[in-house]
């Protein structure tokens, strides 16, 4: 991977700012064209992307095709189907006091957005936020992770080939390039990665007073009730724990269940892993490896051989770690002190859901929470008693797939969210616009000094809020104006009729 020269970064920002100030990205036609090109890139070059990810960390081709290229393509189509609606001004109405004003929300781009991607899903976590940034009308600097160098390099090559580089640029490099980018002419930062680095990103954003979205990780727990379908539960957890070799931010990190459920669960998980990867996963083309030597050593150190009941084998030459189950784990064990981000599955036994809730709430809020049970009320109890970025019942990871649902963390697991409409909103400033008519000056003039008791009382009565009392709330100024006019006319007609002795009551 050829790194971008630090000296060239200011010129990149200068070019992007010129394009944004010229209004190039505000055109819906430009946005749609770029989204179509991004779709085309991820469709035509999917095999090239897959080869790069395989070279970086033995990632199975299917996982890149499905979880990176496939998801990005679907995100592009979803946004293209709705962008006209999302980019339209949204009218607002409220109390009668402000009914004469024409009020609406105008979504506008921030300007230049910096997207810092992650290595574990090297295309998805760089290009999926790009979909929202383009849709909202921004210029973008992409910074792929240097830990997946082949994937980063091919991203730069394909962006230059398919997209408008006067508005979208890729910067390759490591810490020096990232620090230079954070000091640059940016209006928004989107970061995916560890919580520790996320805090540094937030400090840099605070210095520049720019908004951030931080997609971090955490230890995502799984609670399995005794009434769960164990065969299905085991297969789904086995899948979610070992796709991408567990290097997934929303992977199930550890299990909470009773001893009885643990006894039934372990053989089923083992059976599922053997059906996925055979008895020798190191030779399986469907099993990913750890991304580099440093992460291999970190994950390996989390394995306590005295608590391993399945797996535990490693190979430093291939950065290979076998799918591993550990039991008799407690909250003080090393494996419970950090996000695992690898194929190790610790099981902590609890007696019931109350103990599980207490265990979860005693730790930082996770990016995801998983519950397996046939009792919907139990699932709702756990959801209402805990907090997490997202929750999935009777499955893992799939809650991030529907574009109608936002994805993001809470607390230490992240700030802000994206996907679908939320991606458009994430990269848009919602600008309030109000038109005040000049013909209403006689009404508005009551606000002007000098203040009198009568004027103040009149304004208080006009602007005082009231609870909705009609079945159809906030019917609007013209309804009330018509109703008042009709009442006045009817009253005048009745009064005139009485005076003329034409009405007999």
Automatic annotation (TrEMBL):
Transmembrane segments: 477-495
An individual GO BP term: aldehyde metabolic process
Entry's Gene Ontology cellular component terms: cytoplasm
Keywords noted in UniProt: Membrane, NAD, Oxidoreductase, Transmembrane, Transmembrane helix
Active-site feature positions: 215, 249
Gene3D superfamilies in the cross-refs: Aldehyde Dehydrogenase, Chain A, domain 1, Aldehyde Dehydrogenase, Chain A, domain 2
PROSITE patterns in alphabetical order: ALDEHYDE_DEHYDR_GLU (PS00687)
Single GO term (MF): aldehyde dehydrogenase (NAD+) activity
Domain Aldehyde dehydrogenase: 17-433
Pfam assignment, any one: Aldedh
Keyword Membrane included in the entry's annotation: yes
Family assignment from sequence similarity: Belongs to the aldehyde dehydrogenase family.
Record's protein name: Aldehyde dehydrogenase
Organism: Rotaria magnacalcarata
């Amino acid at each position: 991977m050829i790194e971008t020269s630090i000296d060239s970064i200011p010129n990149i920002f200068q070019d992007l700012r010129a394009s944004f100030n010229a209004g190039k990205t505000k055109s819906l036609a430009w946005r749609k064209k770029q989204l179509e090109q991004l779709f085309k890139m991820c469709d035509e070059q999917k095999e090239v992307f897959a080869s790069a990810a395989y070279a970086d960390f033995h990632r199975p081709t299917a996982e890149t095709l499905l979880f990176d290229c496939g998801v990005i393509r679907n995100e592009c189509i979803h946004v293209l189907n709705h962008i006209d609606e999302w980019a339209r001004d949204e009218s607002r109405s409220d109390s009668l006091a402000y009914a004469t004003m024409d009020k609406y929300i105008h979504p506008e781009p921030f300007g230049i957005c910096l997207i810092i991607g992650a290595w574990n899903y090297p295309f998805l976590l760089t290009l999926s936020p790009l979909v929202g940034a383009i849709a909202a009308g921004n210029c973008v600097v992409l910074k792929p992770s240097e830990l997946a160098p082949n994937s980063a390099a091919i991203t730069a090559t394909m962006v230059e080939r398919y997209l408008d580089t006067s508005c979208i640029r890729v910067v390759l490099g490591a810490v020096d390039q990232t620090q230079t980018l954070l000091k640059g002419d940016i209006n928004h930062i989107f970061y995916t990665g560890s919580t520790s680095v996320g805090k540094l990103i937030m400090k840099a954003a605070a210095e520049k007073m720019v908004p951030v979205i931080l997609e971090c990780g955490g230890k995502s727990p799984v609670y399995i009730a005794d009434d769960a379908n164990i065969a299905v539960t085991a297969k789904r957890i086995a899948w979610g724990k070992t796709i991408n070799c567990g290097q997934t931010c929303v992977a199930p990190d550890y299990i909470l269940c009773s001893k009885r459920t643990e006894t039934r669960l372990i053989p089923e998980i083992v059976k599922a892993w053997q059906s996925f990867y055979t008895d020798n996963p190191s030779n399986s083309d469907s099993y990913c490896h750890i991304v580099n030597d440093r992460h291999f050593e970190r994950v390996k150190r989390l394995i306590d051989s005295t608590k391993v009941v399945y797996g535990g084998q490693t190979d430093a030459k291939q950065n290979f770690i076998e799918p591993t189950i550990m039991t008799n784990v407690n909250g003080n064990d090393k494996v419970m002190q950090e996000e695992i981000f690898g194929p190790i599955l610790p099981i902590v036994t609890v007696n019931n859901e109350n103990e599980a809730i207490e265990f979860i709430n005693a730790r930082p809020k996770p990016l995801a929470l998983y519950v397996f049970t046939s009792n919907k009320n139990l699932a709702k109890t756990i959801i209402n008693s805990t907090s997490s970025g997202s929750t999935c019942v009777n499955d893992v990871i799939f809650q991030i797939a529907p574009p109608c649902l936002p994805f993001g963390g809470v607390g230490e697991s992240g700030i802000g969210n994206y996907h679908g409409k939320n991606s458009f909103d994430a990269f848009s400033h919602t600008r309030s616009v109000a038109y005040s008519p000049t013909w209403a000056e006689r009404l508005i003039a009551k606000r002007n000094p000098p203040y009198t008791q009568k004027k103040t009382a009149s304004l208080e009565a006009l602007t005082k809020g009231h609870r909705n009392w009609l079945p159809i709330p906030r019917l609007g100024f013209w309804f009330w104006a018509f109703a008042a006019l009709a009442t006045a006319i009817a009253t005048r007609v009745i009064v005139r009729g009485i005076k003329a002795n034409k009405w007999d009551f």
